[in-house]
Predict the structure.
Amino acid sequence: MSAQAANWPDRLFETLKRGGIRQVGYVPDAGHARLIERCRADDEIRDVALTTEEEGVALAAGAWLGGERAALLMQSSGLGNCINMMSLARTCRFPLLMFITMRGEWEEFNPWQVPMGSIVDPVLKLCEAEVYRVQKPDEVASTAERAVQQVFGGERIAAVILSQQLIGKKVWTK
Amino acid sequence: MKLERRAAMATLLAGRGDDLLVVPGLGSTTWDAMAAGDDDRTFHLWGAMGGAAMIGLGLALAQPKRRVAVITGDGEMLMGLGSLATIGIQRPPNLAIIVFDNGVYGETGMQPSHTQGGVDLIGVAKGCGIESCFEVHDQEGLTDLARRLKALRQTMFARVLISADEPPRVLPLRDGVALKERFRAALGIRA
């Protein structure tokens, strides 16, 4: 991957900034490491480390009640933790913008990641979310921009899926 | 001694002021908040169990000039116990988490909750880094809590011991979109 391609997390961060995101909830995740680092370093963005992803769904609802835009970063395994809490977004039409890094779909060493990873798309669709899958680094920012417009323009739920090929496989030997 | 829930809620919300935003937990505390007098600045919950405190956190961060009171039950708080850890890290000065603890799941048939079994919510909140914690079990303590809520200046957690009774339900609006829109409109947030 070229240097330009490898900096997609920075361009994703800039897109979130341009989109007026003020709260970013996340459970620490290797695929989101750079983006989390940028959010933590930014004075305008409140980074909120969560103990479980469903907290972020409620956080985003509270933010919108108070007039702020939030985003939620998670790994595919975290989506399963959110399902009932997504009732909040669906019933009240709260904007919910999710960035999901994939595990369990490409060169996955850990079979325990496969069960949840394999059902991310159908689960999101059952939850009435718009789903945007990104495979290439140069598509990340433009896809994120579209998701931001969808979510906050129409009070909708959307997930940008960052594929495992984009993230790169986890290295198990050091 | 234990307090009566409706009277406790009425005391906490009396003369609440335009700058107090209230998030009651699903079930009994939402009925209590409704019984105390409906307000556009109350976001009633009919679901999202375990999420009340985190809704309060997102709201408190977004509205630093207003006070936010999450007033929920022990069962609802227990489902979102991790959120106390998350709040303990953020500690917004304008957020109060108040748990009406009757030791039972009132909405589902009075089954015992973990607090009845000895789980100490004040201990959990303190352990999560929330320094300002109050145990309330009588009228004097409740009056003091209401006063502290009015002058809220740091993240606060309180456990209010209430009796396990079930006053008649007073139901708020069920339409989540309408509840959200009236809340935002009351805060002057444009769609």
Summary: The longest helix of chain A spans residues 140-154. The mean pLDDT of chain A is 94. Chain A touches chain B through 32 residues (CB under 8 Å).
